[in-house]
Amino acid sequence: MSWRLKDENNNLNFTIMKTLFFAVLMCVAAISAKAQVLISETVKNVYEEVANQPKSDFVFNVDLTGNDITTMYIYKKNGGGREMLSLTPSLKYEYTYDVDGKVTNKVTYRWDDCQNCWACVSRYDYILDNNSYSVAYSRYNRTTKRFDEPVEKMVYSLIPYDDINCVSYYQREDSSSQLQLISETQVTGLPLLFAQK
Known about the structure:
Layout: H1 3-30, H2 40-51, E1 58-65, E2 68-78, E3 86-97, E4 103-112, E5 117-129, E6 132-141, E7 146-147, E8 152-159, E9 164-171, E10 180-187
Antiparallel strand pairs: 1-2, 2-3, 3-4, 4-5, 5-6, 6-7, 6-8, 8-9, 9-10
């Protein structure tokens, strides 16, 4: 693969991730105080936001189970205008929910042109526990065909009675090392990131 193709793939993935990141931020800002964890409705709002972007270079599609989005597909538009429009698979996200509709994990796949199939890349695990909400990021190990231990973790903690969110970021060098605290920030004056139980 040439450097140019690698750079184009990195730019494409960055553009997709940036679009989804801003859509998530917009949705989180709009969530009411009664439902501030990542829930089925948030995933639907993200999909609506990114799918309805005018002049987007991407097409989004979903699989539903009941009212829940279980899989979101992202395709890159090729051609257009006077040329015939075609779509190339790019990314796929699979969502799992608990019985209350909260997201428990999201698995990311990238389209593998060589194998002509979806290749598992990573997983985010979301855990709500007492006064904290954590998101752990794990990479998929193709050799062992399973997810490695999380290499990054964000913990959002509510300081009781102060309406302060404390955001802690942890990282590990490799799967044999311990997660190390990298940064910690207290946020006030913004909507709470999650609701107290």
